[in-house]
## 1
Amino acid sequence: MSANDRPSGPQPKTHDSAFLKACRREPVPHTPVWFMRQAGRSLPEYLKVREGIPMLESCMRPELVKEITLQPVRRHGVDAAIFFSDIVVPLKAIGVDLDIKPGVGPVVAQPIRSRADLDRLRELTPDDVRYVTEAIGLLTDELGATPLIGFAGAPFTLASYLVEGGPSRNHEHTKALMYGDPELWADLLDRLAEITSAFLKVQIEAGASAVQLFDSWVGALAPADYRRSVMPASTKVFDSVAGYGVPRIHFGVGTGELLGLLGEAGADVVGVDWRVPLDEAARRVGPGKALQGNLDPAVLFAPTAAVEEKTREVLTAAEGLEGHVFNLGHGVLPTMNPDALTRLVDFVHTQTSGGPTPA
């Protein structure tokens, strides 16, 4: 089932939003805009409410999650909210000893390197993340017709953190396990696919209108390795939530050589970073998919005229797409001026309102 085949019944308030229409490859009143990491470090109001609260704890406070998720919607007028959380939250919820170290990222106390270590990865139940269900309920009440995007980390990226013990430049332990013990690797990714699927189901059932699977580190792989060693687990995740009929977005960094495979894994919308123009990305992905992206985040540090010029380039490359959601090619950078993001949303809306709609 794709995003265009939502189960019958009363349509939610968000159904006719520009964001969901673009995901379904339907005509839109304007190109919808949202930003990865729009809720967070670049906003002074975020820094104020998070002051003194560790990252993982902040993800477990429903009222705080609601406030942080709503902040960029209020400030920037984006077309969708993305649930404030972290990709390691489901791992923490099932008892993995990890923490998010400021300036470093997720750090795992005991990396997974053997078959015995798999026993530490039990299944995730809704009771493990009741705070997620509560927070999404609070959010959907306030968001009204604005869609909420749920998300999770893809099995490969979660495995990379678990095997390396934290962020890694070369993923040497991860690749050594993938190449050296393919049976254990497959079992690890399958277990993570089950955990990720359960986490996405909780978010959808609580009211999320779409979900995005972040495979942040998968660009480190060659296409053949992705197809053989990673794609089955990602496909399992997408298949697990297909019956809900909500759009499924897939995004990874440095994945120009994998774009077709990211769509083939089961996504309705393929996220594109800034390295590949959207018209070329469409050729690589093939028909039947919407695209999301793909302004270089660093462009936002340039003068407004330069930002507008580069944005026009993205919109021009997107003119022939079946569906387009405007986003950055990666997340909002922490030192970015929030006003630049607000101006960007307005510029995209103005440039695309009343113009040609997707084919």
## 2
Amino acid sequence: MTEKALRLGTRRSKLAMAQSGQVAEAVSQVTGRPVELVEITTYGDVSREHLAQIGGTGVFVAALREALARGEVDFAVHSLKDLPTAQPDELVVAAIPVREDPRDVMVTRDALKLTDLPRGARVGTGSPRRMAQLNAYARSRGMDIETVPIRGNVDTRIGYVLKGELDAVVLAAAGLNRIGRSDEVTDFLSVDTVLPAPGQGALAIECTADDAELIAALAELDDPFTRAAVTAERSLLAALEAGCSAPVGALADLLADGQTVKEMRLRGVVGTTDGSTLVQLSTTGPVPETHEAAMALGRELATEMLAQGAAGLMGERAQ
């Protein structure tokens, strides 16, 4: 007799379905059980408001978590950058697999690079974080660009460029890679230009805290380096008391000496969306061996950023 299929809760977007499909395959391999996708519509999928207006934090996550709590699905896959930083006691992130490319990318008309954009170029993004850093970059280079708030899935966003309504749109490299559209990227934005969202490119596989057997099985997909990095990034975000629609960028990367990983560097940025003021700092320390050590790295950098005036740049403080 075949074992009962595990039910994986996923958002319905093409990207969510693609990344959930990849996780389903991996989970099926480690558990030997079939995995079926259960599609769930979240508030963030149906609302037409800009993310910054609906609060950003958790709008793509709540419905999936409710389905988990009600036992309608056995586990759920989230884009980690959509997860609120506070973790509910009854749920556990059992695995954070190896991270995809964390960078932001541009899809532009005529295959232009960021540095080639003409004066007055219209650049679409729904993210205050991207706006802040792109506008700051443009100011520092004497460029004149206009950032335009947009929403919608990948097709919709790239469509604005194809139809000539915008000169460029900014998207996450990871998403385009996962749906097999990375060949449409015209420019990869260096993390020195635009720091990604905390946790960008990483997935979180979440299940109920009382399902010890499933937690153990899913844990085989966990990548400790990715987990340490995103824990530090999200700790920085939490310590700045910012939701995921706040203009905060963060990236922790590993510094290796040859084959040996020696240290972790955490970089953070917060800025006004017009790019006129940015607080950008970094800290380097030993690779965190524990959850507490990774959290401490994030808090430490946040404290320094707050001391340099980061709080005043956040706009609405997350409630």
